[in-house]
Amino acid sequence: MSISHNTVELVRATPPVLTAVSDILGESLREISQDERTGVAFHKHRFGGDLADREAGAIWCEGRLGTAVDPSRVVVTNGTQNSLLMLVASLVPPGSVLLTEALSYPQIGTLCNLVGATARSVKLDELGVVPDDFKRCCEEYRPKAAYLIPTVQNPTATILPSNRRHEIVAIARKHGVAIIEDEAQAFLPPNADAPIASLAPDTTWYVLTMSKSTSVGLRVGYFVAPDLRQLENVYARFKKMSMWFSSPITAILATRWITDGTANRILAAIRGEMAERHRILRDELTNVSYQSSPNSLHVWVKGASGLRDAAAIGEWASQRGVIVRGWNEFQVADSGGPHGARVSLTAGDQEALRTGLRKLNAGLGAQC
Ligand SMILES: Cc1ncc(COP(=O)(O)O)c(C=O)c1O
Predict the structure, then answer these.
(1) What average pLDDT does the segment 120-138 reach?
(2) Distances (CA, A) of 249 to 43, 46, 81, 235, 363
(3) Which of 248, 251, 247, 244 is closest to 90 using CA atoms?
């Protein structure tokens, strides 16, 4: 498919480019370069983060978990994909099953293939993962773990209601299923429901990235283990492999930003920008129904008949000069899933967003 220069790409769900963040980055890098400890840090591997990094990670995760986190349970990685690789490889042995939502972060399927695990998917509805189907899948597939994105689901943008979170925990406990909870965008809504990890800290691996709340280029992620014994099993496999260690410069930056309040300032700026972009969304996307969460980086356009045929979506959208991601791109197991398309609100500036949404609205209006 050739993309004309007039085409608007509403594809990547990463934070919008903000001048204020670029300015902060420049200032922080200057200060870090003048700190004599930086040179020393560059002569060492940053295995799982140093103590200061783990303490900062604990503080950042506490912002969602609501209680104090022991820093020794926190692992600092160079992003969520590394966290997930370590967790899936350790919790889901080859030949066994990982449950995922019917549409999910596509890389989880790639990771399953890599480690020889099988992904099976649980139904999603307009509230998120369906507890009855989660129960059925636990009984039928006897999974070792479930990978869930209950807060600002990717791609459907829902926030799973609290009662469903409790139901999922009870079912997972009954069947001995560990939960890997990915809260990538959870800081964007001001008051999302408490994470599953805060309801079941003993069986949940909590995964958080700085990518969606500060900057995707930072490449720093965290995960919190249920306890030190289970964490040792993960370390036993990965301890000597440097591919998941965060680089000193980004770990120093993330730790500094969290401890001096900069990360919260950046988050506030992203939330402010996203609130404006959601206003543009409400103004422009009037012809179709969509799901979103407050300040989410993407929304989910549902129900348009033209979006049911996976192969047609790319062509359909590009003919109208706008690129979105069809539902099939988020299919992990061969399972169907809600039909629709993920629309990013962050690619380009606000004017580009308005133009893209207008094109989409005009085209979708004809489809519905
Ligand atoms: C659910 C989810 N988790 C994690 C990530 C990426 O995290 P990281 O940049 O830390 O690899 C994404 C990016 O799209 C995502 O959608």
Answers:
(1) 97
(2) 12, 10, 19, 23, 45
(3) 244
d(CA 224, CA 179): 12
**C-beta of residue 298 within 8 angstroms of C-beta of residue 342:** yes
Predicted local confidence at residue 6, as pLDDT: 79
Correct CATH for 27-261 of 3.40.640.10, 3.30.70.330, 1.10.468.10, 3.30.70.270: 3.40.640.10
For ligand 1, the distance from its centroid to the CA atom of residue 368, given in whole angstroms, is 32
**129 — pLDDT class (breaks 50, 70, 90):** very high
Residue 364 pLDDT greater than 90, yes or no? no
What pLDDT score was predicted for residue 307?
A: 65
Q: Say what the pLDDT of residue 365 is.
A: 64
Ligand 1 centre from 34 Cα, in Å? 32
- Residue 323: name the closest of 5, 1, 6, 8 by CA: 8
Mean pLDDT value of segment 23-41: 93
Q: What is the mean pLDDT of residues 241-262?
A: 94
Q: Which atom of ligand 1 is nearest to the CA of 81?
A: 11
At residue 118, does pLDDT exceed 90? yes
Q: How far is the CA of 80 from the centre of ligand 1 (A)?
A: 6
Enter the tokens of residue 314: 């790319």
Boundaries of every domain in the chain: 8-18+263-367, 27-261
pLDDT at 311 over 70: no
Q: How far is the CA of 105 from the centre of ligand 1 (A)?
A: 7
Ligand 1: residues with CB < 6 A are: 13, 79-81, 105, 149, 154, 182, 184, 209, 211, 216, 221
Instruction: Count other Cβ atoms within 10 Å, centred on residue 170.
Output: 14
Are the C-beta atoms of residues 282 and 288 closer than 8 Å to each other?
A: no
Instruction: Match domain 8-18+263-367 to its CATH number in 3.30.460.10, 3.90.1150.10, 3.30.540.10, 3.40.50.460.
Output: 3.90.1150.10
pLDDT of 367 reads 56
Quick one: tokens of 368? 């519905």
